[in-house]
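Section 4.2 – Deliverable D4.2 (structural model, holo form)

The reporting period included a commitment to supply a predicted holo structure for the target in complex with D-glutamic acid. Inputs used:
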Amino acid sequence: MVFYSGESRIMNFMEKEKPIGVFDSGVGGLTVVKRISSVMPHESIVYFGDTARVPYGSKSNETVIEYTMQAARFLMQKNIKALVVACNTASAVALDVLKKTFTVPIIGMIEPGAKMAIKTTKNHKIGIAGTRATVGNKAYSKQLLALNPLVEVYEQACPLFVPLAEEGWHKHPSALIIAQEYLHDLQMKDIDTLVLGCTHYPILIDVIRKVMGSHVQLIDSGIAASEVVRAELERIGLVSNSNAMGRMDFFVSDIPSTFKNIAQLFLEREVPHVTKIDTEYLSSLPR
Ligand code: DGL
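Output (structure tokens):
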């Protein structure tokens, strides 16, 4: 138990009511926002989606690191108490740099997703569906093998899943055809667990489940990560004391209306404010 007195009690109260910053290249991080707000409905969230520069998954590590640092600097200005990198690609490539630069707790997607997959698999054969960058960097393979050297890991890049999700085409017939094509090799590997290693992919979960079959457990790294966020806030004593629903503020780097429509549909709640932030402004933020 931590005891506070006078001024420090007020300071601690204010710290607890700060928002959690959540960042993704686009709409994918909404799958994580949904999980965080169901686990911690009283927490406020400030979200940044870099919709002008999505996809990150086909960009170089240097570019992903630069964009991620810009997004983090922007969210730090919003006085956040923790940063959730709700993007597997940015987590795979930029998490170490972020952790070395900023002092707030920073939670990525890879470690929580990998731990959940290890807990879930029975036959120790795990598939990973992710962006080219996440697969190319072998982010999940490295993490899974560090946790259990006996697992067999099969990774598959599925780059067209991101534009399908950004367009809201998760029920379009093309989504099934594309999923069948991408997931064909994984179907042949006898995996019993498939990590949705990109936060956009849970938007396509119905189609992915249809292709893989009900015998394959699908791992949503956002579910695993939201539990880590809660545990981390409890550990540092910064869980909100509020009884009201947390506030959500959204910022994007391109047309707000497209994002707003998808956000409302996906979060099943009114999204009143989506504000556009110019990429020139992001790149001008002091380092
Ligand atoms: N949603 C992101 C991820 O989890 C990135 C998708 C992209 O921008 O390519 O990897």
